[in-house]
Structure formats: structure tokens, C-alpha cells
Design brief:
Length: 102
């Protein structure tokens, strides 16, 4: 690095985790994971905990990006739950699907 580069480097914007990902809403993340595991169990379909958590993280990021009020975010859990049930029912009806009852 040359002598004048230090000043330029200190004023350059830096990327942070918050620049690329929304802040984590722990309560929402917990509810999503809980509901995903519950729905799979109710439908008789097996899912690994890491898969349920990955799905919850994806839904979490989508919700946090579109809904600002933390209480309103929790109402989105019902939408995710309904969509997941519908997805699993459709997959169970498809003979080519691997999402069959355990």
C-alpha cells in the first residue's frame, strides 16, 4: 500500500452482513422452524432438522424484507404454513414425487 492509499481505504464504503441480509428476527425464525417441523410431522413426511431450518431461514428473509413490523411478521407464519401444507399435499399426490408419507 502506498502512503496516500490509507486515507482512501478508510473512507471507502465497506460491505457488512446487514448490507446483504436482513437482521434476524429470532422469534419469527423460531416460529417458522417450529411450524415447518410440525407440518411435516402432521403430514407424515420426514424432514431433517437442518432442512427445516434452511427452509425457515429462506422464508424468514423473505418476510423480513417485505414486512417491517415484528408483530405483523408473525401473521405471515400462517401463510407459510398454509402454502407448505398445500405443497406437501400436491407432492404426495404426484406419483413421481419423493415426498411420500414416512
Amino acid at each position: 500500500m502506498r502512503p496516500g492509499d490509507a486515507a482512501a481505504a478508510s473512507t471507502a464504503p465497506t460491505a457488512t452482513a446487514e448490507t446483504f441480509a436482513p437482521a434476524t428476527d429470532a422469534r419469527l425464525m423460531g416460529r417458522l422452524t417450529e411450524k415447518i417441523l410440525l407440518i411435516y410431522k402432521e403430514m407424515g413426511v420426514s424432514i431433517a432438522i437442518h432442512q427445516a431450518t434452511e427452509r425457515a431461514a429462506k422464508e424468514h428473509d423473505r418476510i423480513v424484507a417485505t414486512v417491517t413490523d415484528p408483530d405483523d411478521r408473525l401473521t405471515e407464519v400462517g401463510e407459510v404454513t398454509a402454502a407448505l401444507r398445500q405443497e406437501l399435499r400436491a407432492a404426495a399426490a404426484d406419483p413421481a414425487s419423493s415426498k411420500r408419507r414416512a
